[in-house]
Amino acid sequence: MTTTLITGGTVVSATGRAAADVLVDGETIRAVLEPGAALLGTDVAASVDRVIDATGKYVIPGGIDAHTHMQLPFGGTEASDTFETGTRAAAWGGTTSIIDFAVQTYGQRIEDGLAAWHEKAAGNCAIDYGFHQIVGDVNEASLATLRRLPDEGITSFKMFMAYPGVFYSDDAQILKAMQVSRDTGMLTMMHAENGPAIDVLATQLVEQGRTDPFYHGVARAWEMEEEATHRAIMLAKLTAAPLYIVHVSAKQAVEQLAWARDKGQNVYGETCPQYLYLSLEDQLGAKGEQWGSFEGAKWVCSTPLRSREEGHQDSMWQALRTNDLQMVSTDHCPFCMKDQKELGLGDFRKIPNGIGSIEHRMDLMYQGVVTGEITLERWVELTSTTPARMFGLYGTKGVIQPGADADIVVYDPNGHTSIGLEKTHHMNMDYSAWEGYEIDGHVDTVLSRGKVIVDGDQYLGAKGDGRFLKRGLSQYLI
Ligand code: URP
Ligand code: ZN
Ligand code: ZN
């Protein structure tokens, strides 16, 4: 077993920071020591196999991205990152665990959808991975199966109030699934947008000749997110189910969450980097030479990017500070422009929805520290510690403490990261939604269960290094 000492750095947790050395023994953290301390009378640095010098750098628990879609069949195509390419890109960006969504499609058994997801991931991941379950067909059999999933380490499921004819569930189906959530303690995750109403608006826009990507954001108005968020909250209240709203982008949806939380309801929410930095006007507005007004397809995702003039982005940052939103995931769902986003040329409804960010989440959120939006500790909390607690991984993940998995990132605040074109990222995409973003900071070294998988500009990981994470119930609920 290899022993490693990470020395000279500042260890940052969700609650504080301190100069400390971290001793790693095999796959786990053995001790967090005063700088230069001896252990059982031995000079630690002299006795370990490897020393990582973290002088002037932050030592943080590895990022946990709790919302990814590798190889998701969607919008007439399939998300372009495999578990192999997507988890490798994650590692490059300082993320050491993901929770992906296993899919049950309409007419399929949950068991079969889940087995297919295990097959896609097993032996292919560079980092540890867990699953949520997408419930795409609520019936007696699927509800019975859902009840048994915690035994398999799957303790959360996602439902969709959007995408009629694809993943959509109506209120009656949602109510029934939430009753399972109440009985089992599983977290109900909700895509909260009023899909049937959105589809009417989208069709009307296309009939008026408004076919550009920009109209994706127009059809998916914030009222549709606010309404669905409220409805989900009320259904959860009625059934006493714990609820987690995914990819929140509208400030009015945050107000709904804050309202319910102030009443003591077990309701939580995440946002994503795209809803903090990008906007309807800047990204989906008609611009660009190469694709004409179709360039906006790069940023078509759901919930959609929102208007900056209306202040949604500022409201997301504020909610992250006040804990009205508890964490930041990517909703990584990458598609290439060529042959994929292009499916929607002439009709925005056919553009596969999704943005790829798995590689950039830690950097983009660190930029929030640099600009004063969040503290250093909150950065760690939003990207690692709360995801671990929310989804039943805390203790082994999300923290640097003896006994935890040695998932550790050495982050250099004096480094620099230019996020750029296809050639400079590792995600399987022919463009970057983040092109031109400059980050004051850099992921230096990444350890996944004690193994150095990223060392400067060298990738040392391998497919199959990552293990399936059997998760417990949420450790965050009140
Ligand atoms: O645009 C998105 N978010 N695509 C992925 C599917 C989903 O709704 O999360
Ligand atoms: Zn969704
Ligand atoms: Zn998603």
UniProtKB/TrEMBL annotation:
Q: In its UniProt entry, what is this protein called? A: Dihydropyrimidinase
- Family indicated by similarity: Belongs to the metallo-dependent hydrolases superfamily. Hydantoinase/dihydropyrimidinase family.
Cofactor(s) needed by this chain = Zn(2+)
User: Which keywords appear in this protein's UniProt record, sorted alphabetically?
Assistant: Hydrolase, Metal-binding
Q: What is its EC number?
A: 3.5.2.2
Q: Where is the Amidohydrolase-related domain?
A: 58-452
Residue ranges of coiled coil: none
Single GO cellular component term: cytosol
* Record-listed N6-carboxylysine modification sites: K158
Q: How is it modified after translation?
A: Carbamylation allows a single lysine to coordinate two divalent metal cations.
User: GO molecular-function annotation terms?
Assistant: dihydropyrimidinase activity; metal ion binding
